[in-house]
Amino acid sequence: MKKILAAPALAITLLLGLSACGDSDDDTIAIATTHIDAATAFSLDLGGFNHTDHSFDFALTTADGTPVIGASQADYKVIYIGKNQANVSAFSLPWHKAVLCSNAAHAKASCTGKLIETEPGKYQFTPDSKPTSSWQQTRLAVTVVGALAQNKPQVTDIDKPAGI
Q: 110-132 burial by CB neighbour count: b if 16+ within 10 A, else e?
């Protein structure tokens, strides 16, 4: 009788032991993505902006919402646009200033910066130098260029933190 009960107990122990060893807790699901050089069109959605170091987050997606990957190696242009504080005089003219951050060899950029992919289709840009703090009405325009397409640049007002 002991032999009859020992065989099923051994089988159950082996099954439980093998399933525990072979089971992985990594239940990640592969997400469909499009490489920036294969995308025929994509859009850029600006996320959060850090007013301390002028870094910001953005997402690149195709028209159907597929994340666009590989942009950290692509050409980009980040333009910070601002106006100096007003001079109060009879002849004061507010001049706009701009700082171009780019990794493109042909662009004469004032700064470069670091563009990293934080997760598929999501990026963070941190400039190596930031625009002057005396600027008012600061705006941002971002363009990322792939082999077949680039996003439509949009000028976004970043002068005030969200919610103010």
A: bbebebebeebbbbbbebeebbe
CATH number at residue 48: 2.60.40
Does residue 34 form part of some domain? no
CB 138 within 8 A of CB 90: no
Distance between CA 57 and CA 118 in Å, rounded? 9
Domain for residue 3, yes or no? Answer: no
Q: Which domain holds residue 99?
A: 41-157
- CA–CA separation, 37 and 61 (whole Å): 13
- Please give the DSSP secondary-structure letter assigned to residue 150: B
Nearest residue to 155 via CA among 38, 41, 77: 77
Number of domains in the chain: 1
Which residues of the chain, if any, have pLDDT below 70? 1-27, 85-95, 106, 132-133, 160-164
Count CB atoms within 10 A of the CB of residue 135. 19
pTM: 0.74
Rounded CA separation 25/9 (Å): 26
On whether residue 52 sits in a domain, the answer given is yes
